[in-house]
From TrEMBL:
E.C. code: 2.7.4.25
Family matches, as CDD domains: CMPK
Species for this entry: Limnovirga soli
Gene3D superfamilies in alphabetical order: P-loop containing nucleotide triphosphate hydrolases (3.40.50.300)
Protein name as it appears in the record: Cytidylate kinase
Protein family membership: Belongs to the cytidylate kinase family. Type 1 subfamily.
Length: 225
């Protein structure tokens, strides 16, 4: 059966990584969470106080960043490593979510991340989720999915995920962060979030995880036979 590239783009917290992970497991494909790469770059920029308006400083910082995904046998998922340090937990913190879309809008940052994503894709048999994967990173991907879900459903899903690690966080704060990122991601100049013309839309507001998997597997099967 032929190996393909599957791209999953869409709004914040609608379940892109969840679907990508489900598919990768079913198909024995590699799953790449491209958002984790932008989050790790953001962590480095904040730790090192990199000024986004200083092009030379941005380039120097990027040259010092080494990103890798390392499989974690305990969780069964890949963790994001920044310069050989596991940052999987650190990059999910709220202050990273508050800054990531600004960092991700930078041209040099995007060039850096996209080059690495394309390299990973050379081997095919991958599912990558993000914002510009079907439009920019892999415009020739065999299957492109554009995900969306009702904003209140998305807030509830994200709130449940972050409440334990962010004491005192409210649903309103989560909603503001999702809305802010969706706005910045959709309106930036370079590779804004938008549906690729040939992407299939998946609105999972009212779908269980099992139902969404059944649906996307049908789409995959139509393309790998
Ligand atoms: O929190 P959520 O899982 O929705 O987002 P994420 O996938 O972790 O991505 C975090 C942020 O990285 C997004 O809000 C975008 O600003 C940026 N991003 C991007 O610009 N392009 C991508 N391909 C993936 C993420
Ligand atoms: O990657 P993205 O930010 O789009 O979302 P995610 O990190 O996959 O998080 C989505 C959350 O919604 C997870 O906690 C899932 O368990 C949950 N969920 C889902 O993904 N799909 C459904 N049909 C129902 C719930």
């Amino acid at each position: 059966m032929k190996k393909i590239i599957i791209t999953i783009d869409g709004y914040s917290s609608c379940g892109k990584s969840t679907v990508a992970r489900q598919l990768a497991k079913e198909l024995n494909y590699i799953f790449i969470d491209s958002g984790a790469m932008y989050r790790a770059i953001t962590l480095y920029f904040l730790q090192n106080k990199v000024n986004l308006h200083d092009e030379a400083a941005v380039n120097t910082a990027l040259a010092a960043i080494n990103l890798s995904f390392v499989f974690n046998a305990t969780t069964g998922k890949s963790d994001m490593y920044l310069n050989e340090v596991n940052v999987e937990i650190a990059i999910r913190e709220m202050y990273i979510s508050d800054n990531v879309s600004t960092v991700a809008a930078d041209a040099a940052v995007r060039e850096f991340a996209v080059a690495q994503q394309r390299k990973i894709g050379e081997q095919k048999g991958i599912v990558m989720d993000g914002r510009d994967i079907g439009t920019t990173v892999f415009p020739n991907a065999e299957l492109k999915i554009f995900m969306t879900a009702d904003i209140d459903v998305r807030v509830e899903r994200r709130y449940k995920e972050v409440v334990a690690a962010n004491a005192g966080i409210t649903r309103e704060e989560v909603k503001q962060n999702l809305a802010m990122r969706d706005h910045l991601d959709s309106t930036r100049a370079i590779s804004p979030l938008r549906k690729a013309d040939d992407a299939l839309v998946l609105d999972n507001s009212n779908l269980t995880m099992a139902e969404q998997l059944t649906l996307v597997l049908q789409w995959v099967n139509e393309r790998i036979q």
